[in-house]
Amino acid sequence: MRQKLRLVLAEDQVMLLEAFASMLSLEPDFEIVGKATNGRDALALVQTLRPDILLTDIEMPELGGIELAEKLYTTKAHTVVVIVTTFARAGYMKRALNAGVRGYLLKDAPLAQLAEALRNVGRGGRAIDPTLAQQVWDAAHDPLNSRDRAILRLVESGRSSEQIATLFDLSPGTLRNCFSDIIQKIGARNRVEASRIARQNGWL
């Protein structure tokens, strides 16, 4: 008998998480071994349970889906990542593929398509939403590094310059230089516009 694909599911909307779990549990070749509502719990489950696939959203509390994928990719983890999201942005998918993600699907896809995508990934293949696959080649280059992204996310959350400087252990002058560098990379007029442009392009 063929071994079941072992899955960990990560989704911060509990109702959707339970819906995914219920529907995928009906498939005879899947086993749901863990569920998490934030990225750090998902990472802990993956490290403990070593599932075949982590199914996750992009935007998660504490640790996002792409950041999760980056951590697993750099440590050469056994588990591969499939992202299911509402964000139909080529920039997100480009970042996800660079992080070693093996599947990128939209949440409005039929369950049968999701199940077959997971099987394909389990066999060593990829599963990419076909409409996004066409767009990814035209996606703008992501000019940001991980610290740039973290700083812009704090700008989005309404943190003050003083708070951001403290969190990164930076002097006010160094933080101003960081902001200037980010604004120049993106071609924005100020930090707020920089975060908006970065979000629209899927760089955050």
From TrEMBL:
Q: Which SMART domains match?
A: HTH_LUXR, REC
Q: Which UniProt keywords apply?
A: DNA-binding, Phosphoprotein
Phosphoprotein found in the keyword field = yes
Response regulatory domain boundaries:
6-122
Q: HTH luxR-type domain: which residues?
A: 137-202
Task: List residues modified as 4-aspartylphosphate.
Answer: 57
**Under what name is this protein listed?**
DNA-binding response regulator
Question: What lineage is on file?
Answer: Bacteria, Pseudomonadati, Pseudomonadota, Alphaproteobacteria, Acetobacterales
